Recover the amino acids of this structure.
């Protein structure tokens, strides 16, 4: 089953960093949050990714093209025109990067990867949210209900307090989690039929498509009350970084030891014109 990740938005609330790189490439613990999201899915055996690019999409393409350089020691033998990677932390990932346009809305991005998804069930999430959700349980829930779309609903953190007033006097102050409505937390499971609900590039998936799916009785929600957090501000980034550095990041469901593959020797063949170059 393929996993579609939306990674093309502007990320204006993180403009301090997104003027340089796209939001999904903002790092937590030395790796982009996009990498963390992919590791969650990979832990459950889902390794075929379609990433929808937009704003500064070339940054993501370049990062993946240099993946080994980011994650292992390397020896360049310029005389032999070879590259040797040491203790490479390989991932069993297949990654398709699709330019879905800088101005395209979330629904339009999903529609644009229809041909890459094919006629099969697929998953979709946003490139800025992590969770310790059990992906297998989510997929099982979707299949048991036989609907076109399953959306994970979550309780947002209590970043905003709520209170009761009498005139200008505050009578009760409480954390926002009390009696709060759940919100869309991403981590969707979708059937190809959802493409019929998306009419063009400028259609947000969260508006007319989901509204019509709900109206037709084809949208279910998987209620999740475990850890979920969206990186929507610099404070969110700091909170996630602090959790990671503590060694107790809830979303790190994969093997904490990581593991290494055998060293990889990449020797380039001589080009037909007699020239050689280093490439990867």
């Amino acid at each position: 089953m393929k996993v579609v990740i939306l990674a093309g938005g502007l990320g204006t609330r993180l403009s301090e960093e997104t003027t340089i790189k796209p939001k999904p490439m903002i790092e937590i613990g030395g790796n982009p949050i996009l990498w963390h999201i992919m590791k969650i899915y990979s832990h459950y055996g889902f390794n075929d990714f379609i990433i929808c690019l937009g704003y500064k999409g070339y940054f993501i393409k370049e990062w993946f093209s240099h993946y080994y350089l980011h994650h292992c020691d390397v020896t360049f033998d310029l005389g032999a025109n070879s590259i040797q990677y040491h203790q490479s932390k390989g991932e069993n990932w297949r990654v398709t990067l699709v330019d879905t346009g800088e101005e395209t809305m979330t629904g339009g991005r999903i529609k644009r990867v229809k041909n890459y998804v094919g006629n099969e069930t697929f998953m979709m999430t946003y490139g800025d949210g992590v969770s310790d959700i059990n992906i297998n349980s989510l997929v099982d829930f979707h299949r048991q209900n036989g609907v076109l779309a399953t959306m994970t609903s979550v309780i947002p953190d209590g970043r905003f307090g709520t209170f009761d007033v009498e005139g200008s006097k505050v009578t009760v102050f409480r954390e926002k989690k009390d009696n709060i409505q759940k919100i869309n937390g991403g981590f969707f499971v979708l059937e190809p039929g959802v493409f019929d609900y998306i009419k063009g590039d400028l259609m947000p998936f969260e508006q007319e498509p989901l509204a019509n799916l709900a109206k037709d009785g084809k949208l279910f929600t998987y209620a999740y009350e475990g850890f979920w957090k969206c990186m929507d501000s610099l404070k969110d980034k700091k909170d996630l970084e602090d959790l990671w550095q503590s060694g107790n990041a809830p979303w790190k469901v994969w093997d904490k030891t990581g593991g290494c593959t055998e060293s990889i020797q990449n020797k380039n063949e001589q080009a037909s014109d007699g020239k050689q170059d280093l490439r990867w």
Notes: The two ends are 28 Å apart (CA to CA). The domain at 2-153+182-265 is CATH 3.90.550.10 (Spore Coat Polysaccharide Biosynthesis Protein SpsA; Chain A). The first strand starts at residue 2 and ends at 7.
